[in-house]
Amino acid sequence: MASDGIIEIPGNLLLFACLLRCAQYLWQSHLKQTRAFWLAAALIFFTVIRRELNYLPDLFVPSDFSFLSQSYDWWEDSILTVIYLVALGLLAYSRHYLYAVLKRVPVSLYLSVTALAVIQYMGENAIMFPHTIGGIVEELAETVIYTIALVYLWRLHLSAYSGQSYSDQP
Q1: What is the pLDDT of residues 77-104, one digit of tens each?
Q2: Domain segments of the chain: what residues?
Q3: What one-character-per-residue DSSP string does 148-168 give?
Q4: Which residue ranges does UniProt annotate as crossing the membrane (predicted)?
């Protein structure tokens, strides 16, 4: 954590709040498609949190860890890939609900998040930013993106989608 600094803490807290909000929506949902969508969202936030907490293996896993002749990094990447694929499958299953949610997002929000993602990438790779402040720019951009996600999740109401018909057929 010392290498990542204290600047990552707000982002991690925001991600955890997003995960909890998705879990709340999962428990409040009654249709299979909506439950699949919110489970996928929770899995995605879980994997993002795991990637943000990149110092955890250094704290808890010995550097020479091996299981079935594979390193910890291999196992972590494999498990996270399976989680990504499950989330993708759940999103495909809930595509009608996904579309209903995404079409209500203002275009300006898409553009803002895209611009922040570009700034985050530029900060991470020291493109147009000195390497000394690139990490700070990266973390600040990520924190703003996570804040936007939490605000959007908080303002989203499941009742706004209850009048729409979603097929529960696979």
Answers
A1: 888 899 999 999 999 999 998 998 888 8
A2: 8-161
A3: HHHHHHHH--GGGGTTS----
A4: 6-27, 36-54, 74-93, 105-123, 143-161
Question: In whole angstroms, what is the distance from residue 54 CA to residue 146 CA?
Answer: 17
Contact 168/33 with Cβ under 8 angstroms?
A: yes
d(CA 18, CA 35): 16
CB 73 within 8 A of CB 56: no
What is the structure's pLDDT at 20? Answer: 96
Give the range with max mean pLDDT: 17-26, 56-65, 159-168. Answer: 17-26
Contact present, 91 and 40 (Cβ < 8 Å): yes
Q: How many CB atoms lie within 10 A of CB 87?
A: 20
168 Cβ partners below 8 Å, 6+ apart? 31, 32, 33
Amino acid at 85: L
CA atoms within 13 A on the CB side of 139: 17
Supply the pTM of this predicted model. Answer: 0.81
Sign of CA dihedral 66, 68, 72, 74: positive
Q: Are 8 and 137 in contact (CB under 8 A)?
A: no
